[in-house]
Fold this protein.
Amino acid sequence: MRSEARSIPTAAATVRTPELAVIVPTFNERENVALVRDLVADALAGVDWELIFVDDDSADGTAEAVRGMARSDPRIRCVQRIGRRGLSSACIEGMLATAAPYVAVMDADLQHDERLLPRMLQALKQDGCDLVVGSRYVEGGGFGRWDERRAGISSMATKLSRIVCKIEIADPMSGFFMMRREIFERAVRGLSGQGFKILLDLLASSPAPLRIKELPYEFRPRRHGTSKLDTLVAWEFGMLLADKLVGHLVPVRFALFAFIGALGLVVHLAVLRCALAVPSLGFTGAQATATVVAMTSNFFLNNLFTYRDQRLHGWRLLRGLGSFYLICAVGAVGNVGIAAYVFAADNVWWLAGISGAIVGSVWNYAVSSVFTWRRR
Ligand code: GDD
Ligand code: MN
């Protein structure tokens, strides 16, 4: 093996890595990839570039289309991920797949103006910035024919993220930017990699403040295909913001779980009150009914909100409900046991009650996160 490796002609070693890598995340963008290649090649004439598409195993054959282009042009590469989804994590893996000293991220749907790329590169090389952002919110930028509703949502999300992340940047939600490789490498281990907000994530995870420049551009309408922004993406954004706000105190998912648990107590009391009006049930029957109703509603609320990203459907939903009942039953035994123990020790009823409730809910959370909503 060794002698073979040594016999590789030295000419191969003189081929240099491109100066700029443009990372393009794709999910069902087959009809756009060739257009992206043409536009990028035009815009970057004179620059030594490579174009890396990171595709999450799109059913429409995007990866195959990219490899088709790559066969005749080695500047084009395809990273195909199987069994995974996510715009942010795709961008991260694309950047990790290149050694280029400058890296850019751009969407595949032609909404970002590729003509900004050479100016972004120039700003990094000559103006000494760390990060250049294509911005819709600085003078000269805009939304073009974007529909009003989305422009409204985008501007609200932008304001929210500015409050939470204390970032002095007009368009932290932009998905179009370029940076020095070191900036990415310094932040990469702190990135959450969840959802769509890769830039926000980078800004929030950078250890030192960055020298940022924003260049205006007009957001164009999508050429082919459809947007992947949905309620799950919105949910992930909310979780990211909440994590920046309270994540250092308590995990956001647990906070949500505990909140729904508290809501469950209200449900429990309301059902108990009604069930007591049915004489044939008696207190035990009424309490049992209330317990089952509260557990069931907790399960569905958690499935809808706390674990939106791993939501159970179909028969998994039923199996999940069953396991949740079991886990909560054991949690209740632990709850009562701890409360009785604390009460016996110091006779303070509320301290005993709270201790039991905390132990019960931590148990329920920890065990259901492993058995009920386990990651597949
Ligand atoms: N690999 C991969 N995996 N790519 C994805 C995924 C995914 O799960 N989801 C979306 N993409 C790709 C799309 O194929 C497209 O190239 C790009 O990411 C953006 O997706 P869109 O679905 O077009 O998103 P958008 O237009 O709603 O949002 C864009 O604009 C926002 C600004 O308002 C994105 O750039 C956002 O990051 C940006 O915040
Ligand atoms: Mn888009």
In short: Residues 107, 109, 111, 222, 227 surround manganese (II) ion (ligand 2) (CB under 6 Å). The first strand starts at residue 20 and ends at 26.
